[in-house]
Amino acid sequence: MAKKSAAKKALGLDPFAAPKSGVRLLSIESSPSPVSRSRKGSAHSRSDSAFDRPTGADEQVSEEPRKPAARAKAATSQTASRKAATAPKPAPVKAPKTRPTKTRVEETSAKETLEGSTAHAQQAPARAPGFDRMAGELAQRLQTNRPKELSAEQMRRIDDLLAQLDRADLPQLERSLAARLEKAWQYFRMYGRSTSVDDFGLDPKFEELVDPLFDFMYSKWWRVETSGIENVPADGRALLVSNHSGMLPWDGGMIKYAIRKEHPAHRDVRPLVEDFVYHQPFLGALMARIGGVRASQENAQRLLQKDEAVVVFPEGVKGIAKLYRYRYQLQRFGRGGFVKLCLRTGAPIIPVSVVGAEEIHPIVARADFLARPLKIPVFPLTPTFPLLGPLGLIPFPTKWFIQFGRPIDLRQYGKAALDDELLINRITHEVRQQIQEQIYEQLKKRRSVFFG
Question: What is the pTM of this model?
Answer without folding.
Answer: 0.60
